[in-house]
Amino acid sequence: EVQLVESGGGLVQPGGSLRLSCAASGFTFSDYAMAWVRQAPGKGLEWVSSINDRSSRHRESDSVKGRFTISRDGTENTLYLQLNSLNPDDTAVYFCARAGSYYSTWFDYWGQGTQVTVSS
After folding, report:
1. Helices (H) and strands (E) in the chain, counts
2. Confidence class of residue 105 from pLDDT cuts 50, 70 and 90?
């Protein structure tokens, strides 16, 4: 059974940082591109960042470029998202997802999400 379990969310002040983790199991992690997607209160899903299966390429949305960094650890089967210079617009539930491919916006498995709240 494919499972994706996020952790690391919380309440942080503007300008602060967080590191999100996503523990993957039930599939060969190194065979798949992975992504982070978020959903702000009252809004739709927003793609945040993707990384390819070999960790050699990554891409980010314009709204987080230069502030968020995606990475993965194949030995731990874990996906990460480092969030820096957070602002209130980053408040959202953050989901990790398994991607159809590196450039795909189709995701077949999702985690349950972790809440990130940016507030003073």
Report:
1. 0, 11
2. confident
Output the average pLDDT for the chain: 96
Q: Is-contact 19 8, C-beta < 8 A?
A: yes
30-48: pLDDT as tens digits: 999 999 999 999 999 999 9
Residue 31 DSSP label: G
Cα Rg of the chain (Å, integer): 13
How many other β-carbons are positioned within 10 Å of the β-carbon of residue 29?
20
Q: For residue 56, how far is the Cα from the chain centroid? A: 17
**Per-residue pLDDT, 61:** 97
Q: Name the residue among 38, 2, 28 with its Cα closest to residue 116.
A: 38
Q: How far apart are CA 88 and CA 48, in angstroms?
A: 16
d(CA 37, CA 15): 21
Cα–Cα dist 113/5, whole Å? 8
- pLDDT at residue 55 tops 90: no
Ramachandran area for residue 42 (φ above 0: left; ψ -120 to 50: alpha; else beta): left
